[in-house]
Each structure stands twice: as structure tokens, then as C-alpha cells.
Amino acid sequence: MTRLSLGAFSAAPTITDGLRPVNLQSDLRPLADLIELAFADSMDSAGRSAIREMRYLSHMGAALRLLTRLNSLAEGISLGYVYLVAGELVGNVSIYPANFPRELGETWLLANVAVHPRHQRRGIAQKLVASSLDTLRARGAATVILQADCANEAALRLYEATGFRYERAWTHWRRSSRMRASAPTPHDFHITRLRRKEGAAEFALAEAARPNSRGGLGWLKPLRKADFCPSPWQQARKWLSMNSLEKLIIRSADERDILASCWLENAAIGFGRVQARLFSSPAKDHRAYAEALISNLVSRYDRATILVEHPRDDDVVSELLRQQQFKARRELWHMRLDF
Predict the structure, then answer these.
(1) Higher pLDDT, 231 or 295
(2) How far is the C-alpha of 237 from the C-alpha of 295, rounded, in Å?
(3) Does residue 336 lie in a domain region?
(4) 128, 163, 198: which is the final residue of a domain?
(5) Nearest Cα to 272, choosing from 235, 302, 293?
């Protein structure tokens, strides 16, 4: 876990204008108000939960110093910066460790880049981002990643100007549990669970479909062989974490290759919500495989809310998801900067 600076808990500085590091004891509540205002149109249930948590933590006083070492939300906020105008907190940026495996390099993420609407277009966001990058460069970071709304042209221009490059755009799809599934789509494929010995073949498929140079498997989901060919210890850790993961695949006729795969996360726990990931070989026409897997997914979890994070550039899957009554909730660019 990243070690926190005691400056994050010291008495609030007397700065009334300009940029300074976050002070958790004085800044959490106004930060919650700013982030809620800035992201009101796109905030999901997890974001609203984080806002409530920030407001709760703001009442902890001196105990916050201890709790923050155990709380990843406050940890990331404490490493960021705020911007003040006449004593009012009007800008923020948060910095979080991505906690990627060591072999992927020290990776950090930029989040909650927000400026109050009354103070936008004054260069505040540029100063916040630049200071954050200077801090991360000094800490020895190898890579910084972020998400930005595809429709937020001002934010995209800012990140481009500071050196970030586009990895891939992703659409977040949601199918309500209130929807009822239509009759399953007829197909000639045999959909079955992945065999343990097939991890290497599935990894080869994922390398072609979801390379790390284009964002990996999704947000904060880098492509790692260990996720496809886990050791006994890694399998035991997953079992103890109660993070259910089922993998359904379609094999080639000779059973040598895996043509398509669908991951179902938390499907066995029974919380009424399933996170699905689909990928198939970009070298083949994958419409038939994707249609079969999506139809199977909807039929099996007809009474659950189904969430899918999928590359926006895959027009075939996007069309099939719409046909199965999925709604696009957000479209986000994943961007990265390598020092």
C-alpha cells in the first residue's frame, strides 16, 4: 500500500488562492460537493456510494489518519491536489495507485479531475493535471492511465496536450433485470465451460482480441497470463475472495482453438447482478459466435441485471447487445501516458 504523507492530515494551510495538496481533514466535504456537481450527469451507483463515504469520513476528525491507511478512496484523494479561489475549493485531481502486477511497471491512475462550472476555462484543470504528473514522475511512476467521457471534448484536448495517448474507447452496457428474454437464438455451436488445460489457448485468443496496448480486458483489467493459467495458490485466493468467475467458450471443430469466450463475474453469488466480458478472434467473422454467447447469457440470467464493458469499435457486438435490450450507459476513452 502506498505510504501517505503526513501533510495530508496537517492543519489546513492559509492559502486562499491557487493550487495546494489535499488536506483530508478540511477538504473532504467540499471535495464531495465538487465531485458530485461535476459528475452529476454520469455518476453511477459506485460513484454515489463514494460520495457518501467521503462525507462520512469527513466527520472522523483525528481518527481519519488511521482509517485512511485502510481506505483506498481516502488514500487516493490524499495524494491529489485542490485549487482554491478566494478560499473556496473549486478544483480537484486525485491520484491512485493502480496496483497492477510488478511486471507491468509502476502504474498510477488520474481521477476526479473536476473544476467548478463558475471557474472553468481559466487553466485550472491544466495546472491540476500538470502538478499531478510532476508528482508521479518524481515518485518514479512508469505509466499513468485515466478514463474520459468520449463526449467531453475539452477534457480530451487537455489530456492530449499533456501527453496522453488514446488506447481504446469502451462502451458500458446494461440490461435491466426487468427485461424478459426472447426465445434463444438457434445456433450450431456447443457452448461449454473452459477446461483447466485450455488456459493457454484462451490466453492466445485474448492476446489477439484485447492486447494491453489497447487497454487489455477492460478498465483496470490488464491482460495477464496468470489470469488464464493460475497457480494453485492464485486459485485458492480467488476462491477465498468469493469472487465468482465462470468462463464459457466456443471451440473450433477440431477442438484445438478457442473461437470465443464469455466471462461471467459474480454470477454464482446470487446478488442479482452479473458482469460479463466477451472476446473473440479479430481475424474471424465473429458475429455467429457472439450472437450465440450473448443469447446464452441473456437466457441464463434473464432475471439479473447484466453489465458488459466492451470495445466501442466492435460494431457487431454493439448491434447484438442492442437487439437483446442492452442500453449503452457510458462511452469512455481509456488513455495512458508513459514516462
Answers:
(1) 295
(2) 31
(3) no
(4) 163
(5) 302
CA distance 114 to 37: 9
Q: How many CB atoms lie within 10 A of CB 282?
A: 12
Q: How many residues does the chain have?
A: 339
Over residues 171-215, the pLDDT tens digits come to 999 999 998 877 777 788 999 999 989 999 999 999 999 999 999
Residue 144 confidence (pLDDT): 98
Among 107-111, 126-130, 240-244, the range scoring the smallest mean pLDDT is 240-244
Backbone phi and psi for residue 114, each to the nearest 5 degrees, phi listed first? -140, 140
How far is the CA of 193 from the CAs of 27, 62, 184, 196, 263, in angstroms?
Answer: 49, 51, 19, 9, 10
Task: Write b or e for each residue in 143-180: b if 16 or more Cβ atoms lie within 10 A of its Cβ, otherwise e.
Answer: bbbbbbeeeeeebbebbeebebeebbbbbbbbbeeebe
287-300 vs 315-323: helix axis angle to the nearest 10?
Answer: 30
Q: What's the confidence (pLDDT) of residue 282?
A: 85
Task: Count structural domains, the chain.
Answer: 2
Q: Which three cell numbers stand for residue 287?
A: 458475429
In this predicted structure, what is the pLDDT of residue 179?
A: 87
Residue 76 predicted with pLDDT over 80: no
CA distances from 92 to 77, 98, 256 (A): 9, 19, 52
107 within 8 A of 145, measured Cβ to Cβ = yes
Domain that holds residue 64: 6-163
